[in-house]
Amino acid sequence: MRLDDSALLQTRCWIDGEWRDAASGKEIAVTNPSTGAVVAQVASGGKAEAEAAIAAADRALPAWRALTAKERSGIIRRWHDLIVAAADDLAAILTSEQGKPFAEARGEILYGAAFFEFYAEEAKRVYGETLPSYAADRRLLAIRQPIGVVAAITPWNFPMAMIPRKAAPALAAGCTMVLKPASATPLSALALAELGRRAGLPDGVFNVVPGSAREVGDALVESEVVRKLTFTGSTEVGRTLMAGAARTIKKVALELGGNAPVIVFDDADLDAAIEGTIATKFRNMGQTCVCANRIYVQAGIHDRFAEALAARVRAMKIGDGFEADVQQGPLIDMAAVEKCEQHIADALEKGAQVIAGGGRHALGGSFFEPTVLAGADASMLIAREETFGPVAPIFRFETEDEVIAAANDTEYGLAAYFFTRDHGRVWRVGEALEFGIVGVNTGATSYEGAPFGGVKASGIGREGSRHGIDEFLELKYLCIAGI
Ligand code: ADP
Q1: Which is catalytic among the residues 194, 255, 386, 471?
Q2: Where is the Aldehyde dehydrogenase domain (predicted)?
Q3: Which of 83, 250, 265, 314 could form a disulfide with 245 if both were Cys (CB 3.0 to 4.6 A apart)?
């Protein structure tokens, strides 16, 4: 990997303003999913490093929260500016460890940076309130204070952007943080730490401990010092973390799995529906929690939609994320490939047909053909489980009521999308879908100024927007008597 600024490639734990090896001497081999080559050996932290990072965050907390919001804001804003200036290098690191096309990686860097910009601004707007009093000699106030030390655990599908969604509001609020990035993709997190150092973050305010999910995760969850746990990942791990957090009554924010429906009504603009479906289904090779998992198409537009989607998918360019114009890189690992194969085989056995792609790609490794299936139905695994890969199953439907019931028939509730030009239907369906995010006539909704998060088994809490900072604040009631 060629970088203009080679100091962005850091390979040790970042604790209390220092790069540290793991006491155990253990390392994580970070590999490039496109080539299988080892990109870097990264120190694999354990309990000792997690505890040192928590202690550092605890020591740093009083001074950090005592800064004025404007002072914290200035540092966070500088962090944003440094990320934007280093976007090409950061994208190269991201593509090397995760595989997504370089242009998409660059988009992720800028999207992530925007959270630092937004919360640098929002830091200055953590307002309290005065309350009407119940007695003449009393004045009542509600003030909002930082919750304390925050633990963050992030996944590999957005190695960079999932970090600012948590770190930017947490630090803006006056909290300090210990981050455990996914073991597959720790390099983006460590590069961010290096830029945070240059931006002037005081020692211990932001710590990064790559390493064993079990050891580092358990230390973060069990700590009495950590007051908030913010996690993005699978519903299964989210459940475990929430149960663990119960012992210390830690607050949790969980961004978990999804099973997003896309609904295309007969009156949809076909081109917009195709564009939107491609955008939500195939971003990051289908490996996002807001990716379409079930595509419901009304009978009157079904055949035209299926043909047009299959044609677009067949024309996609697959390859190493560093090659020009590549639209789809490899999947993260072979387990991801096997899950796609399992979902396709199950669907074919139950009557679906492949109309584009269908299996492993000739490039080998974890490259997988983007795939479209027709004739999907509710009995198939793909209707119930998140595929987390580039497989688009099409379900035919007849009526609005029928499709709303089908779309809501899932334990998940993160994102949903629908396409229609009927404005009454926009309201009816928008209100009836039991999801935290609903895209209408679009497949791309993410924006730092809007609340992102799920209902049901998709999670608790919101990231982004003015609501995102509330996750890191406690409300305190001051009752002042004797006036
Ligand atoms: P994904 O497959 O999207 O990475 P996971 O939920 O498996 O989703 O992982 C998300 C993050 O959670 C990663 O950083 C992973 O290392 C971490 N993780 C996985 N299992 C645990 C666990 N038992 N305790 C704490 N963290 C965990």
Answers
A1: 255
A2: 19-477
A3: 250
Residues 119 and 187 in one domain: yes
HEC assignment per residue over 420-438: CCCHHHHHHHHHHCCCCEE
Q: Which residues of the chain have pLDDT under 50?
A: none
Tens digits of residue pLDDT in 176-231: 999 999 999 999 999 999 999 999 999 999 999 999 999 999 999 999 999 999 99
- CATH code of residue 313: 3.40.309.10
Q: Identify the domain containing residue 281 by its residue range.
A: 260-440
Tokens at 302, concatenated: 């079904």
352/231 same-domain check: no
The pLDDT, as a whole number, for residue 1 is 83
State in Å: Cα 426 to ligand 1 middle: 36
The answer to whether residues 252 and 266 belong to one domain is: no
Tell me if 423 is assigned to some domain.
yes
In angstroms, how far is the first alpha carbon of the chain from the final one? 67
pLDDT attached to residue 260? 97
Tell me, using a 6 A CB cutoff, whether residue 257 lines ligand 1. Answer: no
Give the per-residue pLDDT at 98: 97
270 inside domain: yes
Q: Pocket of ligand 1, candidates 237, 241, 252, 387: which has the most ligand atoms within 8 Å of its Cβ, to mutate?
A: 237
Q: How far is the CA of 231 from the centre of ligand 1 (A)?
A: 9
Nearest atom within ligand 1 for CA of residue 289: 3
User: Does 464 lie in the same domain as 396?
Assistant: no
The span from the CA of 398 to the CA of 272, in Å, is: 20
Q: How many domains does the chain have?
A: 2
Ligand 1 centroid, distance to 366 Cα (angstroms): 20
Q: Around 439, how many Cα atoms within 13 Å sit in the side-chain half-sphere?
A: 27
Atom of ligand 1 nearest to the CA of 237: 6
Look up the ipTM and state it: 0.92
Residues 148 and 294 in one domain: no
240 pocket-lining for ligand 1 (C-beta < 6 Å): yes
